[in-house]
């Protein structure tokens, strides 16, 4: 199974209206070349799931500025004024989720769990419309799994079987999203031969990865 | 009195114990790291995925992929460790953070905190704040006592909450307050203020501790 | 007929596609790896925490800390990756295992499987079997058709279940059966047996496929 | 904070009647020196949480053979006939849990989640007495977090801040248990200086670890 693709071959799978997860935290760990390409292709009406909407010129924020999203599901939009503007103008639906809950919801989707039982958000507007559950006298929210059609991941080193090694704080949501989408495409900073990442040090097993773009591709 | 932010940061720093895992919010709370007493080693947690965060990186010496949760380039301390966002919040939600220090828009005498949105005006999102306030063992609000004279320490928060009943301590330039079952107790007061000054700047019902101490702000 | 276990393992191997992530149970299912067709690469998952498991290690060439879920020393394939038990079962429960092959004490026409205990007699525990049977995309039971003549393919399991309604296919030395909404359908039969032979050895209601094929067991 | 202890200093904290998690899978990744010491001290009436009860001469199994457990919470006892014998004789309480559920229950305790919503065990005797929850028309079990007084962990390399690197399949339950106990003690195959494990490669952050035994200690 050869998983290595040109960026064009890989990005062809992203269509208008899809739900797309994008790794990264304020742009750190975001596959910026994929963002470049999506902007060039001008894919529209995306539902974007990520930690935040980055900055106007960095990360997911560039897709917002280019008006390619109809909805975002994130924990924070404060660093990108354009997200707030579109939200207030009714051009963009914004769903805000506590960061740790968002991480667990994506993990739950990848791990086949039916939901997440978390204390976060109890007694706040986050609990509105959510199922609650009492366990040992304490109240928790039941938060549902979050999946996507496509996950766009960034790895520092990726081998040709799709095993990924992340660098420093660029890891963040990437390993979680790699488990929670129908199609997982990774942007490799460095594409390496199988064996160059020690089996102990693989952070995302290649079994989750469908396509790899990087190196000369 | 001296620099208000410095006074607050210094006093908060005294709450930290050797080996504590601490998460500091953006802004004033970040200053706390500068005043940790000699001989006390704390471990800073950054919700974007590591422990062992060091001071801000010098200009020109930024390290690739090494920023804090506000996107600012930082450094690492010896023994640092990176992990993904699920682990980062397992640490936070699981009670492995000994203390979190955050600012507030409002905080009330029941320990409710509002610091993430002003409806119709400012909706940045809660980021990791809700998890931090629910999960950390000790929640310390570090802020100026009022917003240009308007009380921020209230009987009951009017803005959307970050978390209900989770605040343990409030540190301002006027003093130190602790949230208890009995209510909000003023335990320390800054020497530049009287109890009446503090009461006047506070909307909440303030119980004055019979053991009221001077707020210690020396180095 | 040839070696019964070999016939079963060979036939199961034909179900596997290139790139499939596969978990093989202890015993007969383990043999399946030996008969994967030329040109098909499968990735074996081991529930104690890795993908890319290779064949059993040669005596004297055991690798430290490298055993399968039965405690047997194994080898690694290129591209292997280790992880913890939560990730191992995230892979299993999350539908990232394309096929699991297990033995059975009993299996029934509704796709129920019992393979983990005989009350009062044998209670080894379910280990990872319940998660595997619930989570894998395709569940293949690979076993001898009867227990020394006593049917194991039943109308309804009498032993405690491993999972309810999760079995997709049963492969025995007599043939291949698939579980459908309509019931259990015999789709392939081994040339050494007649349909009547299979029916006699099966307690379940067996629907004979109108397209009944000879079971392919050649290399 | 010096975390390095002699085995004697560390093991003194384990008292009769405690609930103890022990890492490992059929003995691989089990801190055998700690088991040796507990056998020597003959600590009694333990509730032991682990993947399995190992073999009679390896892993947790040795504590069973020496009759130091009153209860075990595991996924499998089949490789240690003595566990079954004591269970049938009414000398040992055995709680059997599906392996993936057990892993998530321990993780949930460490991660501050109120429980685990899993499809595993639905329609089997595992569901008996458990709360069920319907999500999007599918039935799940609510399984509760599992914590311990002490977790006994085995690491291949451990630095003096407690950062742990595991080797091959010896990882298994160790990283999960390191998050889910009041006192976490790690047996280091190799005790190394801080910095010898790259921050990217740490598998259990040292903040979870209270005491380290290894090297000359």
From TrEMBL, chains A, D:
<keyword id="KW-0808">Transferase</keyword>
<dbReference type="GO" id="GO:0008775">
    <property type="term" value="F:acetate CoA-transferase activity"/>
</dbReference>
<dbReference type="InterPro" id="IPR037171">
    <property type="entry name" value="NagB/RpiA_transferase-like"/>
</dbReference>
<dbReference type="InterPro" id="IPR004163">
    <property type="entry name" value="CoA_transf_BS"/>
</dbReference>
<dbReference type="Pfam" id="PF01144">
    <property type="entry name" value="CoA_trans"/>
</dbReference>
<protein>
    <submittedName>
        <fullName>Acetate CoA-transferase subunit alpha</fullName>
        <ecNumber>2.8.3.8</ecNumber>
    </submittedName>
</protein>
<dbReference type="InterPro" id="IPR004165">
    <property type="entry name" value="CoA_trans_fam_I"/>
</dbReference>
<comment type="similarity">
    <text>Belongs to the 3-oxoacid CoA-transferase subunit A family.</text>
</comment>
<dbReference type="InterPro" id="IPR012792">
    <property type="entry name" value="3-oxoacid_CoA-transf_A"/>
</dbReference>
UniProtKB/TrEMBL annotation, chains B, C:
<comment type="similarity">
    <text>Belongs to the 3-oxoacid CoA-transferase subunit B family.</text>
</comment>
<dbReference type="InterPro" id="IPR004165">
    <property type="entry name" value="CoA_trans_fam_I"/>
</dbReference>
<comment type="subunit">
    <text>Heterodimer of a subunit A and a subunit B.</text>
</comment>
<dbReference type="InterPro" id="IPR004164">
    <property type="entry name" value="CoA_transf_AS"/>
</dbReference>
<dbReference type="Pfam" id="PF01144">
    <property type="entry name" value="CoA_trans"/>
</dbReference>
<dbReference type="InterPro" id="IPR012791">
    <property type="entry name" value="3-oxoacid_CoA-transf_B"/>
</dbReference>
<dbReference type="InterPro" id="IPR037171">
    <property type="entry name" value="NagB/RpiA_transferase-like"/>
</dbReference>
<protein>
    <recommendedName>
        <fullName>Probable succinyl-CoA:3-ketoacid coenzyme A transferase subunit B</fullName>
    </recommendedName>
</protein>
<dbReference type="GO" id="GO:0008410">
    <property type="term" value="F:CoA-transferase activity"/>
</dbReference>
<keyword id="KW-0808">Transferase</keyword>
């Amino acid at each position: 199974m050869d998983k290595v693709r040109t960026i064009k071959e890989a990005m062809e799978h992203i269509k208008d209206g899809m739900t797309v997860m994008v790794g990264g935290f304020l742009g750190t760990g975001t596959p910026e070349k994929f963002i470049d390409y999506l902007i060039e292709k001008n894919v529209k009406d995306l539902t974007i799931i990520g930690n935040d909407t980055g900055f106007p010129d960095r990360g997911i924020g560039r897709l917002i500025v280019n008006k390619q999203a109809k909805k975002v599901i994130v924990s924070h939009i404060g660093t990108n004024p354009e997200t707030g503007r579109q939200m207030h103008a009714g051009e963009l639906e914004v769903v805000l989720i506590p960061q740790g809950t968002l991480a667990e919801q994506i993990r739950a989707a990848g791990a086949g769990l039916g939901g997440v039982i978390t204390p976060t958000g109890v007694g706040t507007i986050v609990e509105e419309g959510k199922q609650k559950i009492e366990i040992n006298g304490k109240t928790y929210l039941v938060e549902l799994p979050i999946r996507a059609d496509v996950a766009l991941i960034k790895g520092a080193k990726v081998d040709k079987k799709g095993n990924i090694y992340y660098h420093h704080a660029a890891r963040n949501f990437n390993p979680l999203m790699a488990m929670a989408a129908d199609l997982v495409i990774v942007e490799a900073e460095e594409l390496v031969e199988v064996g160059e990442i020690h089996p102990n040090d693989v952070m995302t097993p290649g079994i989750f990865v469908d396509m790899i773009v990087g190196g000369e591709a | 009195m001296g620099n208000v932010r410095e006074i607050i940061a210094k006093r908060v720093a005294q709450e930290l114990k050797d080996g504590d895992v601490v998460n500091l919010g953006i802004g004033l709370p970040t200053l706390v790291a500068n005043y940790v007493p000699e001989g006390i080693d704390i471990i800073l947690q950054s919700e974007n995925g590591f422990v062992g965060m060091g001071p801000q990186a010098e200009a020109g010496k930024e390290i690739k992929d090494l920023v804090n949760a506000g996107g600012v380039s930082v450094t690492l301390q010896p023994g640092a460790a990176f992990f993904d966002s699920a682990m980062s919040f397992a640490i936070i939600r699981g009670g492995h953070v000994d203390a979190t220090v955050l600012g507030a828009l409002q905080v009330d005498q029941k320990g409710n905190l509002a610091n993430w949105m002003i409806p119709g005006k400012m909706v940045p999102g809660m980021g990791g704040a809700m998890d931090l306030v629910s999960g950390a063992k000790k929640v310390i609000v570090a802020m100026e006592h009022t917003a240009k004279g308007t009380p921020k320490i209230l009987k009951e928060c009017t803005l959307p909450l970050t978390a209900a009943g989770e605040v343990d301590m409030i540190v301002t330039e006027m003093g130190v307050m602790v949230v208890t079952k009995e209510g909000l107790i003023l335990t320390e007061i800054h020497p530049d203020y009287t109890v009446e000054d503090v009461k006047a700047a506070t909307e909440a019902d303030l119980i004055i501790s019979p053991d009221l101490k001077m707020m210690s702000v020396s180095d």
